[in-house]
Here is the input.
Amino acid sequence: MEGFVQAEGGLCPDCKAGPSPDNACVGVGLPIQMWHTPDCPQWTIMQIDFDAGSRRIKEQDAWAADIFPAVHERLKQAAGAIERGTPAQPFIDALTELVQAQAETTGFVVLHRWTEILERHFPPQLPDPGYTTS
Here is the structure.
């Protein structure tokens, strides 16, 4: 059929569909594809699973958005209660700053922001040209 990508594929065991403007094409591992008719039982199950997964993600996001401020506050309190100057201090500071960066965004903290924060708390060990440290 013209207008469809030619890729390796298999026939759906239920509906035996092929390329057609009325059928749905699902990638089952690139470049493998499988076509389904609108009334195919496998296609219906896939749509139900997609909807359930989407609903689960929305519920998890709502739960996280609701509870994050309280958890973030507990983290800040716990970090503030630890004695300053301990060997764990860079880890505590980095974690606290990373969580604050996450609190300031509605998505993910992007990689360059993570790198900036970690670089600040864990700078590279520069060579000692005068060999003054042991």
Q: What stands out?
A: The chain has a mean pLDDT of 85. The CA atoms of residues 27 and 33 lie 4 Å apart.
